[in-house]
Amino acid sequence: MTSKTIKRTLLALGGTTLLLAVALMIHILLVTRPRADASTVAMARIDFKQDITRQDADQITAWLSHQKGVDHVLCNAQTETAVFTFHPVKASADQIAADLRTELHYNGVRYMPDQKAMMSGCPVGDHSLSYKIYSTIKNIL
Fold it and tell me: Which one of 1, 18, 82, 128 is most buried, by most CB atoms within 10 A?
């Protein structure tokens, strides 16, 4: 092969690699960017700082089920927690928890995991190759 053919091949290979790297960066940014639309469903938990009975749990379940944007509710009297799914574009979990305290007079506090718990629950932890690639691209852009 001539030197001209080698240069063209290397240039084409480099250009293709660069194009694929840019496409990968754009894909990672689009996939990891948080977004909420009408189809987005989130989950929240309320911990009750008081004993609740089965009747209390039924009342809490009924009340939460009737809130705007709430899809499904589970309330457990033994663990004194309520877990519900909701549409973030229609409702705010913080507001629902505040309204529950005001209207039903239960001492319920929305559970929010700390940063360590959030990282341990995420399949892309800070030690994985995927996270390192994501953070590098995020820092570049």
Answer: 82
pLDDT tens digits, 98-109: 999 999 999 999
**Residue 74 and residue 97 in contact, taking contact as beta carbons nearer than 8 Å:** no
Per the listing, tokens 């938990």 go with 45
Q: Is 73 helix (H, G, I), strand (E, B) or coil?
A: strand
Report d(CA 115, CA 125) in Å as an integer: 12
Q: Measuring CA to CA, which residue among 66, 51, 56 is closest to residue 96?
A: 66
Give the contacts of 139 (CB within 8 A, at least 6 positions apart). none
Beta-carbon contacts of residue 133 (< 8 Å; ≥ 6 apart): 28
| Structural contact between residues 48 and 108, judged by C-beta atoms closer than 8 angstroms | yes
Q: What is the pLDDT of residues 54-90, one digit of tens each?
A: 999 999 999 999 999 999 999 999 999 999 999 999 9
